[in-house]
Amino acid sequence: MAKSPRFWLSIGWLAGWSWTERAFIALLALAPFVILFIVGRDGGPVAGGFALAAFVALNVVVFRHGGWRLLGPHFYYDVVRLARRGRSTILRIAYILAMLGGFLYVFDDTPVARAWTPNDFARVSDRFTFTLFLVQNLAVIVLIPAYLASAIAEEKERRTLELLFTTQLSDTEIVLGKLTSRIIHLFGFVIAGFPILSLIQLWGGIDLLLIAGNLLNTLLNILSIGSFCLLISAFCKTVSAAVLSSYAIVMPISLCFASAMRGFPLVLQDARQAGERVLTVQDLGILTVVHLVVTAMCLFLAVVKLRESDMPALDQVIRASAPRPVADASGSFSAVKEPTLSTAIQEEPAPLPIIVAKPTKPPWVQASPEVLARLYSLPPVSDQPLLWKDRYLGGPSWLLSPLVFVPALPFVVLGAMVILFGAVASIGDPHAQQMWHAVMRFFYYVFLICYILGVGYRAAVTVARERQQQTLEPLLLLPIERSEILFAKLAGVLWHGWPWLLLLAGDIVLGTLIGAYHPLSAVLLSLTPWPMILFVATFGLLLSVVLQTVLRATLVMVITLIGLFGCTFIEPPVSYRPWVEVFAFSLQKGLTAHIDDGHKGNLLFVAVMLPLFAAAAFACWKIALVMFENRVRSSGPEV
């Protein structure tokens, strides 16, 4: 496909530059790298100055020759469209309220004296400033995948990306327009904290270099992480896949870096106060170069990937439809002549060939041996086809796919044998049983969290995906009750995660056999999480009914799960057990174990929480059913 005349990566873009301009810009751009290579950290400010000079000189030269022409009109349309949604304003208000809450927490956590000295005010100001930058960067990391990862994937889902290709917009204008329009809205979150930060300066104790360095670090995080999420959006075909993939990559890496490098990339410290092996504001010269290189690579790959599709190229279609030479009776080849109107009327039409469709198998069955293919054969359709569809739609679980199952099978068998023999050998040893008790608890939480995450995601997208794929209206034409449709959706959501339930049951059974769990504790561990699981499933179903798109339902579910896990696994004030397992592990030392007043309070707390989750699940189910029926009557077809 011919490139647009405004494709800025083409060689013709530099044709109007003189050799003096090219050499001057190249020397200024190369100077920061040379300085950092020779001087190191101490040359960071000088390298930053040369980089700024190169940027200014580049813009001067470019605008002398007509400007960048990188964004295009789609950039202005996207900025206005995002602003009219009103979502950015609501999120900025929530962000300011969160910062005020953090300020009150820091102020309340500081011991109050009758007369504070200036050093006391400076200490509180220092703590709050770092808390503000931490909350600010965490909010940015949470919001970037939601804003940037949906940019191109949203156009693919709506089938509007092909319309953009028919315009005079180049690939670069589309990608950079999407990036810049969303970065502008994210920059609004950064400047929303300026008034509060200005008030803190009245207390003193904060160097302006530290404030400016952390603000620049936040902007660099927005630029590089946003470019990476935009690249993921170019590779993914659906919004939910792009957003979840971005969260799965960005969140763990950012938190691991922050833990290992004492705050980076969330907070930068001062080199005059920080220790060794800590990235500080004095290293921003090197960090700026790294961020810009990552940004340039991600944007280049996104531009290259943008027009790639599964459709054949135009020249392949022309070659496939061109007349092919055929052999005549003498053995010579001649091209097939195109039929004219007269010959088409005189000649009888040739009978159409009968095409027999060959049965195809799913991709995972085609790539697997016959023995493994039996594992993925779907069961026959039952008397309840809707329930069968929601249980088995999408094929088998990814845990049983050949890509995961075949390489992991030897390790799983070996690990299970090691755990089994080690656990059996530790029977009768109190210290070993205590160690295995901790191991069983760890795997119990891992399997439980994985199952709850899967339930929450599938419940949030089950109805919204049917609506986006325009398959909900044919589903509503079936002569069945609306409650049967939602019940089938709920059953399918709970069924799809059965491998995690199997692993969870194996953990409980093995822990009971080796003495790590009390028998009644095993029963309670099996039953206690279900009110919370049902609440997550019904709440996700309610979100899927109320919200129109998969992206909105997924984002609300992610925020809900973060808050739910944060509240669920908080240790009670007088106990060392998360409240989910207070019942079960209160029996760990036997039924006759002494229970003090504090532990009785925990048991009472759990006795209230479990019925509360069950009641919330029932309420979400009823509300989802009412909302589903009302939406069907107002917008859906009548049966």
Task: Describe the protein's architecture and organization.
The protein contains 27 helices and 2 strands. With 639 residues, the protein is an all-alpha fold. The chain has a two-stranded antiparallel ribbon. Strand 1 (325-327) and strand 2 form a beta hairpin. 28% of the residues are buried.
Which structural class should the secondary elements be placed in? mainly alpha
Query: How many beta-strand elements?
Result: 2
The neighbouring-strand order within the major sheet is 1-2
Whole-number mean pLDDT: 72
Indicate the proportion of strand residues.
under 5%
State Rg.
Answer: 31 Å
Parts with pLDDT < 50 across at least 5 consecutive residues: 1-11, 310-322, 335-341, 352-375, 570-580, 586-598, 635-639
Total separate domains: 2
Percent helix:
55-70%
Cα separation of the termini: 48 Å
Main sheet summary: 2 strands, antiparallel
Total helical elements:
27
How would you spell out the order of helices and strands?
HHHHHHHHHHHHHEEHHHHHHHHHHHHHH
Shape: globular
